Amino acid sequence: MEAGEFENHGKQFYLDNVAIHLGGMAAEQVFLGEHGDGVASDLDGATRLAIILDRHLAWMTSSMRGPPASTSA
User: Fold this and answer.
1) In whole angstroms, how far apart are CA 12 and each of 6, 15, 16, 20, 53?
2) Phi, psi dihedrals of residue 53, rounded to the nearest 5°
3) For residue 46, is pLDDT > 80?
């Protein structure tokens, strides 16, 4: 996904898609008793979407707060 692509969809779109990826994995475990080979791609997709959400929301939050505070010891 491109960096600007996040702006084309709302936060809920990405949360829903993370849930879809993880739901497929959970369904395999519940109904089949094990995960198939597709779990890796489900986890990869969910992780990529979560990273997009985290980066975008962290950027928005930090831009509202201003520059990060100094953490010198």
Assistant:
1) 11, 5, 6, 12, 10
2) -60, -50
3) yes
Cα 28 from Cα 36, distance rounded (Å): 7
| Between residues 69 and 48, the one the model is more confident about | 48
Contact criterion met (CB below 8 Å) for 33 and 1: no
24, burial (CB in 10 Å: exposed 0-12, middle 13-18, buried 19+): middle
Are 14 and 53 contacting, i.e. CB atoms less than 8 angstroms apart? yes
Q: Where are the domains of the chain?
A: 10-63
Residue 73 in this model has a pLDDT that exceeds 70: no
How far is residue 63's CA from residue 73's CA, in Å, rounded to a whole number?
A: 24
Band of pLDDT at residue 40, cut at 50, 70 and 90: confident
Overall average pLDDT of the 5-21 stretch? 77
